Amino acid sequence: MDEAKLRTVAQLQEFLNATQEINFTGAPGDGDHQRYEHISRVLKRFAYSALGKSERGVVLAYLRRTSGYSRAQLTRLVARWQSNRLAQEPLAKRYGKPAMPFVRKYTAADVALLVEMDRANEDVCGPAIVHLLHRAFVVYGDRRYERLSKLSVSHLYNLRKTGGYRVLRSHFTKTRAVCNPIGVRKAPRPNGRAGWVRIDSVHQGDLDGMKGVYHITCVDAVSQWQVQACVQGISEAFLLPVLEMVIDQFPFQIEGFHSDNGSEYINHKVAKMLEKLRIEQTKSRSRNSNDNALAESKNASVVRKHMGYSHIPQKYAKPINAFYQEVFNNWLNLHRPCLFATEVVSDKGKIKKVYKHKDAKTPLECLVLLNEAALVTFKSATMLGRLLDKAKERTDLQAAQEMQKAKTDLFALFNKTGLKSRT
Questions:
Q1: pLDDT reading at 155 higher than 80
Q2: How do residues 353-393 score in pLDDT, each as one tens digit?
Q3: Contact criterion met (CB below 8 Å) for 60 and 43
Q4: How many CB atoms are closer than 10 A to CB 421?
Q5: DSSP-assigned letter for residue 410
Q6: What is the per-residue pLDDT across 253-276, written as a single tens digit (0 to 9) for each?
Q7: Of 345, 85, 333, 309, which is closest to residue 203 (Cα–Cα)?
Q8: Confidence tier at 30 by pLDDT (50, 70, 90)
Q9: Contacts 24+ apart (CB under 8 A), 405-412
């Protein structure tokens, strides 16, 4: 752009109105020098000192847009140009690269010695390390520490922040895979058949160092038939009898048992029990958070919703388990609707799961449909009929009211001892 054709302030104003932004480019390493010359030419061409206040504002706005300098920096340069004009001195940079760079006092070898001292003493405080560096040279005569013997505590921390120090101190250890032969590390594939259950544990909080009860959530991957249980602890003495009871409560044959990698399920006692029942044991894979997602979602939508988050002492595990077996599980499976996903294939071939209102049904209703398609194996020929008769004994509303009353009585038992529970 030949900006020398702009001779009047009115032309500058028109230029500002017609343009948005301009990037000033010059020779590499010489950008500031060319900007200074441009500022001097414009100020001289428009006789800046003789202009009025409004006209000066237009000139300064023009220089800000064409030079790229900030308003404060441009104001300083204009003031210096006016003082230099009287002395007939050109506008030039007053700073530059120092002729002699600062001499580095502590070398890379000194940093390596500091790293060695810090690592050996496990990063004790700065004054202690400085004292050890001083003793290494003065007391033990190690000349490698001559410069470090005069290191100040404040500069010690500066050296610890340098890139060279951090590179030498960084140590990475690869995650070692857990080679546990118990269970198969894979996602269960029921292929639309009932009998592949997923299990997870939920802790009911700590209070003053005392553990609370543990809820066991076991749910079928296809029918969403769910069995809840409660134990005092997740050791083998408490967990094994409850697991046998949970498996026995399912009305159909269990073919697969899937859990996360917690030791409460991945152990030889549980593996022996499942092998005796001819049930395949699988466990979640690394970096595949959806392998046990169904059980974890039931923890939130069922356990936390009805049992809350507050601490419940372990001594109440037995009444909670009785509430689950006698009332809660029947309501869950016979009267509480669940949403079942429908797989839809998009135009791009991607499978997406959607939840339609018409797909809401109870786990028992789902078992009826699976039985018609021969996708479930009941433990007895009369099992489905007995479940249907039991579901007709009371309406969904009556079953829910009965469950709420039993839950209220259960929490009243907790509150007798001053326990503040939240539902």
A1: yes
A2: 888 888 899 999 999 999 999 999 999 999 999 999 999 99
A3: no
A4: 18
A5: H
A6: 999 999 998 888 988 999 999 999
A7: 309
A8: low
A9: 406/323, 406/326, 406/327, 406/328, 407/306, 407/323, 407/328, 410/319, 410/320, 410/323
Residue 116, both tokens: 């060695």
Q: Which amino acid is at 415?
A: N
Considering the domain 190-415 in this protein, what is its CATH number?
A: 3.30.420.10
Q: How far apart are CA 172 and CA 194, in angstroms?
A: 45
Residue-by-residue DSSP string for 143-211? GGGTTGGG--HHHHHHHHTSHHHHHHH----PPPP----SSEES----TT-S-EEEEEEEE--EETTEE
Cβ-Cβ contacts under 8 Å for 176 (sequence gap 6 or more): none
Provide the 10 A C-beta neighbour count for residue 162: 14
The answer to whether the predicted template modeling score (pTM) of the entire model surpasses 0.85 is no
pLDDT in tens, 219-254: 999 999 999 999 998 888 888 999 999 999 999 999
Instruction: List beta partners, residue 230.
Output: 215
Domain boundaries, the chain: 3-87, 108-169, 190-415
Strands 280-283 and 184-185: parallel
Centroid of chain to Cα 320: 34
